[in-house]
Specification:
Length: 282
Amino acid sequence: MSQVDRLLLAGVIGWPIMHSRSPMLHNHWFEKNNLVGRYIPLAIEPKNLEGALRGLHPLGFSGVNVTIPHKQAVIPHLDEVSIAAQKIGAVSCIHARPDGALIGSNNDAHGFIRNVKVSFPHWRADAGPITVIGAGGGSRAVCYGLLEEGAKEIRLVNRTLDKAQAIAADLGAGIKPIAWSERHEALGAAQMVVNTTSLGMVGQGALDLNLHDLSSEALVSDIVYVPLETELLKAARLRGNPTLNGLGMLLHQGPLAWKVWFGIEPLVTQELRALLEKSITG
Ligand code: ATR
């Protein structure tokens, strides 16, 4: 082993955390970049959150990703929070700077948009209405990313209409809140549909969405990646729509984190994607 004065360290904080695919992703990058480092799943109970955050710099961590249930709870403990993270209302990445300051950002929106653009290079956010299903944390990042990319109309469908209205109030007039009962009709003339609810994920029910009114050219996307093909994506594929699962969103938010933690942008390769797909399909 080469002589180094310390390991490069990063991780992901959540509770629970051992199901996370992030360690596989980031440790692959240490190996491919010939770096002596580790990315560690950190099971942090909510009551220990502040202490854990304050320990990051002294322990030598360059930073962490943040997942459920800490994405909002970390905000009061940070020294700076990026504009995107403020608008989205959640932090997905923390940089523990060499001076000890903790800087929060949100790379989920970037990961979502980059995944779409890499997979469909001719896709344009302003090509027509986009229907987004769900109004939780994932939805806020997706809506923010789509608006930044130039989307003119986002039809935001949610079971709890208040939450869609709150996103419209925070992110602007491009967001049109729509009641859950209108979700099937909200697909008419849409160029893209994004499921951001937990429906379709392993252990959850399926998303009840009738694709009858959807153009067969519309891109159907899910931020769920376990399973890789949700019932929604399967139904869309069978009627000829282009589809995109949520794995790429996870993969493509990683290089931005590495840029601030370690000063390099690792590559999202086919080999890496296949490694994660294999871990999901078993
Ligand atoms: P995340 O941060 O991963 O987006 P979340 O904030 O808990 O998770 O949001 C989950 C989303 O899935 C919400 O839009 C939720 O709808 P509500 O706002 O009405 O709760 C949606 N969701 C979860 N279970 C649902 C169900 N059975 N039917 C419809 N929507 C559901």
